[in-house]
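Chapter review: from sequence to fold.
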Amino acid sequence: MRVAVDIGPLHGRRTGIGSAVEHTVRALEAHDDIDLTAYLVSFRASPSPGEVRLPLPAMVALRLWAAGDHPRADRWMGAVDLIHGTNYTVPPTSIPSVVSVYDCWFLEHDSLASPDVRRSGRVLRRAVRRGAWVHTSSEATAERVRDLLDTERVVPVHLGPLPVDPAPTSVPAVCSALEGQSFVLAIGTSERRKRHPWLVELAPHLPDDCHVVIAGAPGDDAEALATAHAALPASVASRVHLLGPVDAETKAWLLASATVLAYPSMDEGFGFPVLEAQSVGVPVVASRVGSIPEVAGDGAVLVDRDDAVGFAAALERVLSDRSLRSTLATSGSGNLSRFSWESTADGLVALYERVLGSVS
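The token string follows.
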């Protein structure tokens, strides 16, 4: 089966979607039934030999495809059986197509999204109306996509866990104040749905000897995060650390050293940090929203999305109860066996076969 797959997320700053695409492509390349052609829509990226670059700047392509079904991608793709858009959009084409949707936040909160993201939503809707199938990374997202995009051509296929590097033997300089301390860790880009400012506001309700650490690139909620930190009393603010983006070594140290991972998101399509924490025996406290209950299994304490008092209480309980931490770590380790990138590739190949069977 000849499949063209969008590798655009592999270029530029690596995000969770970029990591998902990297491991998905690697697993598909190892699959005996698949012959991959990598493509991207970008004038900034430098394609490697064998990669197909559509001769359109990404911003221009989004504007054109949000308004109509031209230019079609067929002329550039060559002899492929199917096109898989891995990042919410797939070009207009007469070739059978699949598009990956990881969460529905931007579809449900259009007014909060950037203009480019809103255009991506219109491109996605047009693709589905043309007959594209939708791959989601969870059952929870699949249910919402069926409703929001008015289609039954939706198939959930779980992603796999991201590998976590071994923790360094020395403490990274940016983490020097955390050595030997109990701390709550949150990982991820500071997007509104991640709700990092909300976590900062909970810091005064945590034990006086507990630190809060937030690591991740700045996003559309970076200003609110800084404002929330500035509003804290000085005695609390000194225990809240906004590290910004960190390298793999620092992330590994943080995960290995954290007492608990906090995941207060308002929505998630999968939730890599949950599995990353479980892989190193760190208990998780998370919102009961989206895919999180589905992915976390029994290895997390779940709290209703807007229950700030309950979330702070859950964090304090895990911080103070060694036995509970041990139980959550054991459950989390067992939960990991449900996920692998080989299973992701198998599920996607089955989806591709279903798509091609529906048009034969």
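Two observations follow directly from the output. The two ends are 14 Å apart (CA to CA). The first strand starts at residue 2 and ends at 6.
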